[in-house]
């Protein structure tokens, strides 16, 4: 089984991207300034999972119909402490 392909939003730390690449993941780093709809389109066309810190994606129904795209919100450690 092959590793999932990932699209990392511009707000994902390079250390996480490097870690995932070292583990064999195909990671594409999104260009700075792309709109959320553009990120979703790229993820859908290329069959990638979108990693992001952008909480706007938690309301995925706000965007045009997207089929087969997964959005994985990634929380920073400082944000996680609020919930623990």
How are the elements arranged and paired?
Layout: E1 5-8, H1 14-22, E2 26-29, H2 36-46, E3 48-52, E4 71-73, H3 77-83
Parallel strand pairs: 1-2, 1-3, 3-4
Which terms summarize this structure?
globular; 84 residues; four-stranded parallel β-sheet; 4 strands; single chain; 3 helices
Describe the structure.
This protein is of the alpha/beta class and 84 residues long. The chain has one domain. Helices cover 32% and strands 19% of the residues. Strands 2-1-3-4 form a four-stranded parallel beta sheet, with helices on both faces. It is globular. The chain starts with a strand and ends with a helix. The mean pLDDT is 78.
Largest sheet: 4 strands, parallel
> What structural class is derived from the secondary structure elements?
alpha/beta
Number of helices: 3
* Terminal-residue CA separation: 35 Å
Strand order of the largest sheet: 2-1-3-4
Percentage of residues in strands = 15-25%
**Percent helix:** 25-40%
Give the helices and strands as they follow along the chain. Answer: EHEHEEH
What low-confidence regions span 5 or more consecutive residues with pLDDT below 50? none
What do the pLDDT scores average to? 78
How many domains? The number is: 1
Number-wise, the strands total: 4
Q: Provide the gyration radius in Å.
A: 13 Å
**What global shape is seen?**
globular
């Amino acid at each position: 089984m092959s590793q999932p392909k990932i699209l990392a939003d511009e707000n994902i730390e390079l250390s996480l991207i490097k870690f995932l690449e070292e583990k064999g993941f195909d990671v594409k780093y999104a260009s700075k300034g792309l709109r959320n709809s553009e990120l979703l389109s790229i993820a859908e066309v290329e069959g990638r999972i979108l990693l992001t810190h952008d909480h706007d994606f938690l309301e995925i129904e706000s965007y045009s119909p997207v089929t087969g795209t997964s959005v994985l919100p990634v929380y920073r450690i400082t944000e996680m402490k609020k919930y623990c």
